[in-house]
Structures are given as C-alpha cells and as structure tokens.
Automatic annotation (TrEMBL):
One of its GO terms (molecular function) is iron-sulfur cluster binding. Pfam families: Fer4 (PF00037), Fer4_4 (PF12800). InterPro entries: 4Fe4S_Fe-S-bd, 4Fe4S_Fe_S_CS. It comes from Cryomorpha ignava. Residues 2-34 form the 4Fe-4S ferredoxin-type domain. This is 4Fe-4S ferredoxin-type domain-containing protein. Keywords: Iron, Iron-sulfur, Metal-binding. PROSITE patterns: 4FE4S_FER_1, 4FE4S_FER_2. Gene3D superfamilies: 3.30.70.20. SUPFAM superfamilies: 4Fe-4S ferredoxins.
Length: 72
C-alpha cells in the first residue's frame, strides 16, 4: 500500500493549465484555491499522475510521516 503524500506546487512556474486536475482520481473537492490539485492536504491515493502530467514539472510531494500511537 502506498503511503499518503502532500503535494507542493511551485507557484511561480505553474501555468494553471488544469492538467493535474484532469488526471486526478480524487473527488472533485481535491482542488486548491488556484484551480490545481490540493496542497497541504494528504493524498491517500498517491498515484502521482499529477506530477507525471505537469508540463512544467512544478509539482512535488512529501511522504506523510506515520502517526505515532500514544497508547503503546
């Protein structure tokens, strides 16, 4: 199973083409205020289609760290 990721977009390079949203299998609400894929929101699917299709290669991601179980 893939680990969740959080996407980041280089806003100075983004051309707002909408390609990332077009290929994203997330529900329609997984969109930023700038009509790109959501940033600062964990993506459980982590398919990376948005990174692959970005024509200016400005989408990157960080793997979300596993939550510590405080009851261990």
């Amino acid at each position: 199973m893939k680990k969740p990721v959080i996407f980041d977009i280089g806003w100075n390079a983004c051309i707002n083409c909408g390609a990332c949203i077009a290929v994203c299998p997330q529900p329609a609400g997984f969109v930023s205020d700038f009509d790109t894929i959501a940033v600062n929101t964990p993506c459980e699917i982590a398919c990376m289609k948005c990174e692959d299709i970005c024509p200016v290669s400005t989408i990157s991601h960080l793997v979300v760290a596993a939550q510590e179980n405080p009851h261990k």
